[in-house]
Write a structure and sequence with these properties.
- With 174 residues, the protein is mainly beta.
- The chain has a 10-stranded mixed β-sheet, with no helix packed on it. Strands 2-4-6-8-10-12-18-14 form an 8-stranded parallel β-sheet.
- The model has no long low-confidence stretch (mean pLDDT 93).
């Protein structure tokens, strides 16, 4: 079953929608909570929030902040003008690619996740508190493996910093 919503300037909210879901707005916010099935969300100027979703997720925003949490599936997110904040699911089950042209990227991951990390920024730093076996480590780039590697975590920022932290460390600090 395919579900869809299309608006020229309004917000879209979807809760517990199952099946292939396509959401498209020219200037509003998109908020998705729960549900199963592949999700494609596209906005020309609003923030996107996706939480507690099962299925491959693709997000494209021309100018908003992305807030993504506990998505069980492959995750691809691209924004031309906002930060990306992501809490990876436990366990991490699909490759993750996050790209922003104008903001920071913050990733919270389970410390036991088996990840192959490739993070680069053009104008900022890359930081992590995790025991990553580094094959490349510079102020603006980090490549390596966590827990032997496996699922790909690819992070790109043109004008911001990148931070990769453990969920356990983050919880302890709160």
């Amino acid at each position: 079953v395919m579900r869809g919503a299309d608006t020229s300037g309004g917000n879209i909210t979807a809760t517990n929608c199952d099946g292939l879901t396509n959401l498209d707005t020219s200037g509003g916010r998109i908020e998705v909570t729960g549900g199963r099935g592949n999700l494609k969300a596209d906005t020309s100027g609003g923030a996107v929030t996706v939480l507690n979703r099962t299925g491959d997720t693709s997000i494209d925003s021309s100018g908003g902040q992305l807030r993504l949490g506990n998505i069980s599936g492959k995750l691809t997110a691209d924004t031309s003008g906002g930060s990306i904040s992501t809490i990876l699911s436990s366990p991490v089950v699909g490759d993750v690619k996050l790209d922003t042209a104008g903001g920071d990227i913050n990733v919270v991951t389970p410390a036991n996740a088996a990840l192959t990390i490739d993070a680069e920024t053009d104008a900022g730093g890359v930081h992590s508190d995790l025991p990553i076996v580094r094959t490349r480590s510079e102020s603006d780039a980090l490549k390596g493996t966590l827990n032997g590697g496996g699922i790909k975590l690819v992070l790109r920022s043109s004008a911001g910093s990148i931070e990769i932290v453990s969920a356990e460390q983050r919880t302890a600090q709160q």
